Amino acid sequence: MRLTKIHHIAIICSDYQKSKDFYVQILGMKPVQEVYREDRDSYKLDLEVNGYYQIELFSFPNPPERPNYPEAVGLRHLALEIEDIEEAVSYLKGQQIKVEAIRVDPFTKKKFTFFADPDGLPIELYEQ
Length: 128
What we know:
- By secondary structure, the chain is of the alpha/beta class.
- The protein has helices at residues 16-26, 85-94; strands spanning 9-13, 30-37, 42-49, 52-59, 78-82, 103-104, 111-116, 122-127.
- Strand 7 (111-116) and strand 8 (122-127) form a beta hairpin.
């Protein structure tokens, strides 16, 4: 087996419209395709980042909450690469999003920080 890349990351949200607005309007991800799956009473929204299909947002009736924050079995966090972390943090704060202090990775010496999506999923910004 030879993997070529990560194809996408799937995220289940508790409030589909709120999460859709967050990922599209605030983070600027571009919708590729949105479908309603009647048999599951579920929406699925494919999103792209910088021309690459990467995120799937799902809605399901009554999904369970994340067991704890931020360390839970499964997806630990979603990391997004950014060119200017100070500019990104300023923008997010202007959108009333709480952002942790910018830190420096002790191994790579790159700047990073965390914030959360509407369901508390930790999102990391990592400066290139």
